[in-house]
Structures are given as C-alpha cells and as structure tokens.
Design a protein that fits this description.
- The chain has one domain: P-loop containing nucleotide triphosphate hydrolases (Rossmann fold, 3-Layer(aba) Sandwich).
- The chain has eleven helices and eight strands.
- Strands 3-4-2-5-1-6-7-8 form an eight-stranded mixed β-sheet, sandwiched between helices.
- β6, α11 and β7 form a beta-alpha-beta unit.
- The longest helix has 15 residues.
Length: about 230
C-alpha cells in the first residue's frame, strides 16, 4: 500500500538560493558545478544525472534543486525527479503537492504528463515522488522506470534524479545503471571519511559513472560548493 510522506519544515529561502538570490556567492558555486559537469561531457552530453550522498542530511536534495535552477537559467528545459522514495523532500522545496507523482506513474495509475508539476522558474518542472511505496527498489528497477526515462528525454534536455543516500539503500545503485552519470554530495561538517569511502565503493561496484563530488557546507566565506570532476 502506498502511503503519503510526512510533512517537514524547510526554509525555501535557503533551499532555493540560486533562485532567491542568483548573485550570491553560493549561487555562483552552483553555476560552477553546472559548468564543470558540461566540461566533463564534451564528447557526449550527460542528460540523465543521479544526485546522491553517503547518508541522510548531507545536502543532496538542495544541491539537486539548485543545480536544476541554474541549468534552467541557462535556457535548458529541465526536469527534476524526486526518486528518493524513502524520504522525499523535493515537493517541500518547491511548495507543491505530492498526492501523485513518480510512484503513480510507475504503477500506471497516472500519466507522466499529469504527474509533472510546473514551477515558478521558467523551463524547470518537477516530478514529485508521489506516495511512498512498500517496494522502492523494485519500482526503480522496473521496465516502467526505463520507459519513463525515455519518455521524459523526448521533452527535456536534462533530467536530474534526487536519489536516496547510497549507503542507506540499494536504490541509488539501481538508478546509477540507468543514468548517464552520478554526482556525489558530501558534507564537510558531517560526512565521515569511512562513509565517503563506502559510498564510492558502492558506486564503483554498481559500475556507475561518477562525474565528481560536491563538497557541501564548506565554511569559508559562507557555505560554498566545490565540484571535483573525474
């Protein structure tokens, strides 16, 4: 049985800083991440990106949201998919309902077009998670998920998947096999070395293409983000 996610309090002003304050230093760092991803894919454009982290609360969802904003500001048509079917958060950031979403599309209760939500940001749409399912890994590895990706790529230039922490569940390893590349978000004040190493090993074992690592919450002239390409 599908169940609705619990409501949590999120400060939109902080979560969507690249939209609220596009001239800030942090917003510039998100644009740097965007640029480095583009430079890492000169031969082939990376159109499906998986954003994950070693554990919970390390900033992957905020990074996904802001990366989507700066890509849309560049003129590309972007879809953010909340593929964290354990603790979905994207609908809180963009202040939209989550009664229907990804899970409903995957079990064919609704169409992709009906489940997608427009945002206030031009060229940026989101697909919320929908009700939390009892079998997230099975849904993400289903034929329906592959078909959803193919269908979405007909309408969007880039699709960003906010996926669960890679050390917590197998969902991200499953997604990484379908995406063009993975970006790992670590928190300088929270992520332990062993946790980061375990995350890299998990992605390597899944044969994921790791594009780089974002260092979140670096305390130097504010919360800065760095991108290390491979």
């Amino acid at each position: 049985m599908l169940k609705r996610s619990k409501k949590v309090n999120i400060k939109k002003e902080k979560s969507l800083i690249s939209y609220i304050n596009p001239k800030s230093m942090i917003s510039e760092q998100y644009r740097t991440i965007r640029t480095n991803i583009q430079f890492s894919s000169l031969e082939k454009a990376y159109r499906t990106l998986i954003i994950t982290s070693p554990g919970f609360g390390e900033g992957k969802t905020t990074t996904t949201a802001n990366l989507g904003v700066v890509m849309a500001q560049q003129g590309k048509k972007i879809l953010i998919v909340d593929a964290d079917l354990r603790k979905p958060m994207m609908h809180f950031i963009f202040k939209t309902e989550n009664t229907t979403g990804l899970t409903n599309v995957l079990i064919q209760q609704t169409s992709l077009q009906e489940a997608i939500r427009k945002t206030k940001i031009e060229k940026l749409d989101i697909l919320p998670s929908g009700p939390i399912p009892p079998n997230p890994a099975e849904l993400l590895s289903s034929v329906s998920m592959k078909e959803l990706m193919e269908q979405a790529l007909e309408e969007y230039d880039v699709i960003l998947f906010d996926s669960p922490p890679v050390n917590a569940v197998a969902d991200t390893q499953i997604l990484s096999n379908s995406g063009d590349g993975v970006v790992l978000v670590v928190n300088s004040g929270k992520t332990k070395r062993d946790s980061g190493i375990k995350a890299l090993e998990s992605l390597n074992s899944a044969k994921a293409k790791l594009l780089g690592v974002v260092l979140n919450n670096k305390q130097r002239k504010g919360n800065q983000h760095y991108y290390y390409g491979r």
